[in-house]
Design a protein that fits this description.
rod-shaped; alpha+beta
Length: about 260
Amino acid sequence: MTVDPSSPKNGKLLLSFVSRWQESLKWRIACAYGGVIMVLGLVVIGVAYQSMSQALRSRFDQQDYATATNLSDVAAGYMAVQQNFGLHAYVTKYARLDGVAYAFIEDRAGEVVAHSLRSFPVELVQTLSPGERRQTGRVALQYQGQSVYETRVPILEGQLGVVHLGVWAEFAEREIRRVIVPVIALIATITFAGVVLSLFLAHRIVRPIRELTDAAGKISTGDLETPIALHFRDEVGELARSLERMRTSLKTAIWRLSRAG
């Protein structure tokens, strides 16, 4: 059985079907644009998070090393004249810096000569080889049930002892999040705006096609009086002009047939 598109009933069905198809086309375009933007946004967020995290951790490591080095330079002067009381006060001062969990100094025999703690815990006791005492090091430890990053710096290349500076890992992670979260939020906001823009662009792309489909549906139902007024310079505009020429030709042909009859 053939379908007569000139039938009003079939024309309405055709118009309804094409409208639903156009609506799905709109969402396909929106999903395509939005999907690409979402993927790019997630990639940018991942790369930004990794690169910024590494850069900030490196910066904190350098800051801890600089603090421990300053303490080592001060400790060298006190230990050279064996003024451990003044050294203890200076170590306590350094331990009051933001994020510092503790600070203590070992002499070359491995004895703790100054520390910032009320009582020195056994969990911080370390046995270092002569080679380790002459080298800068950084290790992750557990202190009071929490993670600590400890930086070791030798005093006069290990001849007088070693400085130990512990920084709370949670403090470093919190500072990293404080810097990264606003940047990630900004990227996420831009990504969301891009998805919304893709919906808007999809609507702008599909709207003239929908108008042409409506016009074609009217022509198929016999309505030849409504002109097609779409003024675009692209392929959609060319299609609109072709439909307008077809409408005009059909109207003229019908008028001639009616005059001939």
